[in-house]
Amino acid sequence: MEKAIITRGEFLEIINGVLASMENTGRPITSLFPSDVTKYYFGKRTEFSLDKLISVIENDDLNLRKSVSFKVVFVFSILSHFRGNFSFSNYRFSRHILWSLLYASLILDEQTEIYVGSQGFYDLTLYRYFQNGKFKVLRVHFWDKSSQNILDQRFKIHSHICYARSLVFKGEIENSLYTVKNAKNGELSLFKLKWRSPREKKMAIRTSYLVNTNQPVSCIKDSSESISQGNIYDVKEGSYHSSQPIFHDENGDMVITLFLFDYSLGSVEEGFILGPSGEKTSETKRSPIKNRNALLDRVDTIFKYG
To answer: Which helix (H) or strand (E) holds 65?
Structure first.
């Protein structure tokens, strides 16, 4: 990994977001206080090189603190890559190091769940940052053959309420953009995503529903682009897109993306999903996957030997 520096303030900010993401899975982290963890590692230091900090964390004997701190380093590295604050001189090598940190973090803390997403992937929220009504959320998306079975192709085209960026961490993704317009006799309609309660909406978990707004629309595909490993693609707030993995190995291929929602880069009031005009509602159950460790072990094997 290229030598990079993390300051005390950056560590504290990110650990707050990491712990917030763990609370939003329904498991409050009451035994860890961000300021205490920061003080434990930094002491009187104002900054650390990442490689030195990693070695200090590796010697920690408290598994939960170690797990959270590995995740902090991972999130810091990915957010820095998105911002362009530092670059990876050898991206392939750095991907392996970063994955090993995330893998170790998740193995140390088996209560952190990976969920079934609605867009053809399994997802894990790593970081949630809320301030003054604005937010930033970082997720890992795991795409494989089995995850594709959960995607209802009729509802794959959608928009987001805020600007989004996606880093292709492993494999290759095809991203398509669309123009959507109101159309009196359109075969498609705009659907809204709703939850049973405000709490579940905030946490984005459990059961959600796609509800037809009865606004018919037309949809034209404008473009499709293949994004290779190590590259970033952007999705503007309010624009319509769909993404799908490109598999090169029929047996064991895996695509991994790191998806960042960043309200500070732009936002709209609502996001929509396109679906058949004849449908009234569609239910989505965002439940934890049953084979969490098997998935992680498989990804780890791919990074080691793939």
So the answer is: helix 63-83
Confidence band, pLDDT 50/70/90 cuts, at residue 151:
confident
Strand, helix or coil for residue 50? helix
Give the percent of the chain with pLDDT over 90.
Answer: 65
Of 239, 123, 248, the C-alpha closest to 174 is 248
Stretch (H or E) spanning 200: helix 198-203
**CA dist 169 to 112, 146, 172, 258, 283, Å?**
21, 19, 9, 7, 30
Asked whether 45 and 12 are in contact (CB, 8 A), the reply is no
Q: Half-sphere exposure of 11 toward its Cβ, with a 13 Å CA cutoff?
A: 28
Identity at 136, one-letter amino acid code: K
- Cα separation, 232 vs 5, whole angstroms: 23
173: nearest Cα among 102, 249, 232, 91: 232
Helices 34-42 + 63-83 axis angle, to 10: 90
- Would strands 134-143 and 188-195 be described as parallel, antiparallel, or unpaired? unpaired
Question: Under a CB-based contact definition with an 8 Å cutoff, are residues 271 and 158 in contact?
Answer: yes
Which option is the CATH number for 115-305: 1.10.8.60, 3.40.50.300, 2.60.120.10, 2.60.40.10?
Answer: 2.60.120.10
In tens, the pLDDT along 83-121 reads 886 665 544 448 889 999 999 999 999 888 899 887 889
Predicted confidence (pLDDT) per residue in 216-243, tens digit: 999 999 999 999 998 999 999 999 999 9
